[in-house]
Structure formats: structure tokens, C-alpha cells
Design a protein that fits this description.
Blueprint: E1 7-13, H1 17-31, E2 36-41, E3 57-61, H2 68-88, E4 94-97, E5 102-106, H3 114-119, E6 126-134, E7 156-159, E8 168-169, E9 188-197, H4 203-210, H5 213-217, H6 221-236, E10 240-241, H7 242-254, E11 272-275
Parallel strand pairs: 1-2, 1-4, 2-3, 6-9, 10-11
Antiparallel strand pairs: 4-8, 5-9, 6-7, 6-8, 7-11
Helix pairs in contact: 4-6
């Protein structure tokens, strides 16, 4: 697959079966289940739909009780170690690291699988898709139907430097927490490549997480409350056609993704709320 380049996709998950099942379906279809590597954060965790993906590489780790920021550093350390092994010892050419609610997609205009796109794109260290923080436009977009693709139900999002992540790498260069950057390296934002972040696209799911006692004890309350701002933006602001802003956003965000930039770059301006082109509905996530 991918003209000879071997591509691995990595994630680490805990209590996120809704998104992890979709992550497995999407990346197995793009890269092959045997090239997926899932770290389960907790010995009590199970892989959803495991019988459908017998080739997935699964490792269960004990869950450390840590505050959110320290937990983020612990998780990225595990993923950096795994990616380094895959790239240095296991013959992989490219490693993709994402949270389980993040989907790296090629613009349907190209009609090109993800593996082919990455295999024909040159990058010495790392590559970034343009980040789209998918929201929910209330009341016209109801609660997600779990039996349908998310992009068949959601059309509105915020172009986001925070989700324009250093998700793709060809060397063991370490990721920063949450894959937001490379440590001591900049990276290139690719054309026609997008990271669709789906964790903020359903108010009911967010409210369920905000009632999760374990998350609240770990310091997640403020983090989850900030996430609800995406839904507020996509509901209250007038969206622009995404195709009008994609190129300008890449140029603007590239200036914020430098070796000395903070782990989560910010965009100083009103949220760039967009309506996705109808062609994105063809992507099943």
C-alpha cells in the first residue's frame, strides 16, 4: 500500500469507545488494520469491535492517576517511544499520531487515498494537516446518530491552529504533548490535507464527559468547558465557505508553527467559522 511506503497510525485511548471505534474503521480502511497501533490506558480497557479488526496491534498499560497536564506528558512519552521503535527498528517509513477523535483526510477533490498522498509527498521530518475543529450548529444539527458517518451529520467547524498538529513524521523526532508540535523543530502545513477533530462536535457527548467523575478529579473540567466554545462559535457566528479560507489559513497558521512556538499555538482574532464543502460528506468517519 502506498507505493512501497509503510505507514503506521498510533493512538492512545481511555473510556472513548465511541470515537475509538470510528478511528479503527477509518484508519483500517486507509492503511490496513495490521498497521494500526493502539495503546489502551488502563488494564480494564477493551478494544471496541475487536472481532472486526483482528490485525490491530493492541497494548494495554496500567492507568496512572495523574493530573491532566502530567497525564498528557505520560501519554505522549509512551507514543513517542512506540513511534521511535516503529520508525527505527520495525521498517516503517511514516508514523501518524492522533487522538482517537482525530481523522487525517485528503481533500476529496484529489480522489486519492491517504497512503498514496503521503507516499508521494516529500517531507524530511514532519508534515501537518490543516486543523478543522468540527462543531455543531444548533438547533439545525441534532445529536449524532451513531449509525451514520459524522461528516454526513456535521458541516460546520472552526479552522484552528491548535488542531493543525505535527501529526505525521518520518523520523523519531519527538512529538510534544497532544501531537501539537515537534520538540525543537518546525513543520510544514500540507496542501489538500486536513485533520478533522470531532471531539467538540456534539453537545450531548461533551455534557456526558463533564459529568464523568474520574475526568473531573483529573482536572478536566476547565478543558471540557473550553471545548464547548467551539459549539457556541459554530452556532452563533455566520460561517464562510471553507474553500474561501483554506489557503489563507494555511499561510497564517504556518507563521505560528515555528520551533520556538508554544505547544498549542493561538490565533489572535475571531474564530474562523466555516461551512465545509459538500464533497466532505463522502468521507466516512
Amino acid at each position: 500500500m502506498g507505493k512501497g511506503k509503510r505507514i503506521a497510525a498510533l493512538t492512545m485511548a481511555r473510556n472513548d469507545g465511541f470515537f475509538l471505534s470510528r478511528w479503527l474503521r477509518y484508519y483500517a480502511g486507509e492503511l490496513g488494520a495490521e498497521n494500526l497501533f493502539v495503546l489502551l490506558d488502563g488494564l480494564d480497557q477493551e478494544l471496541p469491535d475487536a472481532e472486526r479488526y483482528p490485525g490491530v496491534n493492541v497494548t494495554s498499560l496500567p492507568h496512572p492517576s495523574l493530573p491532566r497536564a502530567k497525564g498528557d506528558k505520560y501519554r505522549i512519552a509512551q507514543l513517542n517511544a512506540l513511534a521511535a521503535k516503529l520508525l527505527s527498528d520495525e521498517g516503517y517509513d511514516i508514523a501518524i499520531g492522533t487522538d482517537c477523535d482525530e481523522f487525517i483526510v485528503v481533500d476529496p477533490l484529489l480522489d486519492q487515498p491517504l497512503a498514496d498522498y503521503l507516499s508521494t509527498t516529500s517531507f524530511p521530518i514532519g508534515l501537518s494537516p490543516l486543523g478543522i475543529d468540527l462543531g455543531q450548529r444548533l438547533p439545525q444539527e441534532p445529536t449524532l446518530d451513531p449509525g451514520r458517518s459524522i461528516l454526513a451529520q456535521r458541516r460546520y467547524g472552526v479552522l484552528s491552529p491548535r488542531y493543525t498538529k505535527a501529526s505525521i513524521k518520518a523520523t523519531p523526532t519527538p512529538w510534544g504533548s497532544g501531537f501539537h508540535r515537534f520538540r525543537q523543530h518546525g513543520y510544514t502545513i500540507a496542501a489538500n490535507l486536513y485533520l478533522i477533530h470531532t471531539g467538540n462536535c456534539d453537545l450531548e457527548l461533551l455534557e456526558t464527559k463533564m459529568r464523568d467523575g474520574a475526568r473531573l478529579e483529573g482536572g478536566w473540567q476547565g478543558h471540557l468547558a473550553r471545548r464547548a466554545k467551539t459549539i457556541h462559535a459554530t452556532t452563533k457566528r455566520t460561517p464562510r465557505p471553507a474553500d474561501e479560507l483554506f489557503s489563507a489559513a494555511r499561510r497564517a497558521f504556518q507563521r505560528t508553527h515555528l520551533p520556538w512556538s508554544p505547544n498549542k499555538p493561538s490565533y489572535f482574532g475571531p474564530p474562523l467559522v466555516v461551512e465545509l464543502p459538500q464533497r466532505f460528506e463522502r468521507i466516512t468517519i
